[in-house]
UniProtKB/TrEMBL annotation:
Part of the binding-protein-dependent transport system for phosphate; probably responsible for the translocation of the substrate across the membrane. It comes from Georgenia wutianyii. SUPFAM superfamilies: MetI-like. This is Phosphate transport system permease protein PstA. Keywords: Cell membrane, Membrane, Phosphate transport, Transmembrane, Transmembrane helix, Transport. Belongs to the binding-protein-dependent transport system permease family. CysTW subfamily.
Length: 344
């Protein structure tokens, strides 16, 4: 075997990258100790700055240039993933750490009636009910409208009508949430007067924000369905509308469900439009079409603004909102898994 062949089959032992990482961490700690002291961000940055070129140089000498470039690319990808995960992990940790102090079964089953000042009692039951009402109304409006619009754009639309709808969807995607709230507020101001507040107004405001997200996500999922499936159905004499229902939508159901859940997650935490349209209340309002109603985003905002003990309830409300989104995503995964076509 030639020297070149021996060089090509040489590989670093599996523990080598970990040893280089440990050495890089030690170097970073030593350098930062000479200054103001080590910090998590500083250690991470210096570790990456030492680790990537050091491992690449060692690999270049032992394994060759091709393997070294592969290790460098892998290191950069992993580093990018870690950097992207830092805000998410920090956010979840901050909310959980702040919310567990007030989060309890009592918090989930009581409202704010009779709670004043810095009293430790009170919960977010009324805000949970209001959030479900407002988000449910928005979903009832936006999901069918978005799916039917996407079907038209992919399966039927053409010419100026398609271009106009696509442009309108693109413009609506960038609408600030406060503008959607002002639109819904002004609409009902003209129809019912300035004193009218209800979950219906908030639902319409959120539907304005939710619809373009549903349209875009469903449209992309429908375009991924192979045309061969449509043509096979047409060849068997299946009408177009039935082909869309039984073949196209059934094939894309997993992606459609994911897109719908992304749209719901997009609007369920909106605060600005709900401040204008539904306001806040201390008790449960089971009537979604009349009267002020509390929602979790507005509840969190108001409790945090009060400061003191109320901040604990604000963090607990934020934790509740995250749990609701997680449960909705779990339901979406179960739905997509159950209704997706089985591959044999």
């Amino acid at each position: 075997m030639t020297t070149t062949a021996l060089h090509q089959v040489r590989r670093l032992p599996s523990w080598a990258p970990w040893a280089v990482l440990a050495g890089s961490v030690a170097v970073a700690l030593a350098v930062l100790a000479l200054g103001g002291g080590p910090t998590v961000a500083g250690v991470g940055f210096l570790t990456a700055l030492v680790y990537a070129p050091l491992l690449t140089a060692i690999s270049w000498q032992v394994e060759g240039s091709r393997r070294a470039k592969d290790r460098l690319a892998t290191t950069l990808v992993v580093a990018a993933f870690v950097v992207a995960m830092v805000p998410l992990v920090t956010l979840v940790w901050t909310v959980v750490a702040g919310g567990v102090r007030a989060f309890s079964w009592e918090f989930l089953t009581t409202d704010m009636v009779g709670v004043f000042g810095q009293m430790t009692e009170g919960g977010a039951y009324h805000a949970i009910i209001g959030t479900l009402y407002v988000t449910g109304i928005a979903s009832l409006i936006a999901i069918p409208l978005g799916i039917f619009t996407a079907i038209y754009l992919v399966e039927y639309g053409g010419g100026r009508a398609k271009r106009a709808i696509t442009l309108l969807v693109d413009v609506m995607t960038g609408i600030p949430s406060i503008v959607a709230g002002l639109f819904a507020f002004t609409l009902f101001l003209v129809l019912f007067g300035p004193g009218y507040k209800s979950a219906l107004i908030g639902g319409i405001a959120l539907a304005v924000l939710m619809t373009p997200v549903v349209v875009r996500s469903v449209e992309e999922m429908l375009r991924l369905v192979p045309n061969e499936l449509r043509e096979a159905a047409y060849a068997l004499g299946v009408p177009k509308w039935l082909t869309i229902v039984k073949v196209v939508l059934r094939t894309a159901i997993a992606g459609i469900t994911t897109g719908v859940m992304i749209a719901i997650a997009r609007v369920i935490g909106e605060t600005a439009p709900l401040l204008i349209t539904v306001g806040i209340a201390n008790a449960v309002n089971y009537d979604a079409f009349d009267g002020r109603i509390a929602t979790l985003p507005v509840y969190v905002y108001r409790q945090y603004a009060q400061g003191g003990v109320s901040e604990y309830r604000a963090w607990a409300g934020a934790l509740t909102l995250i749990i609701i989104v997680m449960l909705l995503n779990l339901v979406a995964r179960l739905v997509s898994r159950y209704f997706s076509p089985k591959v044999r």
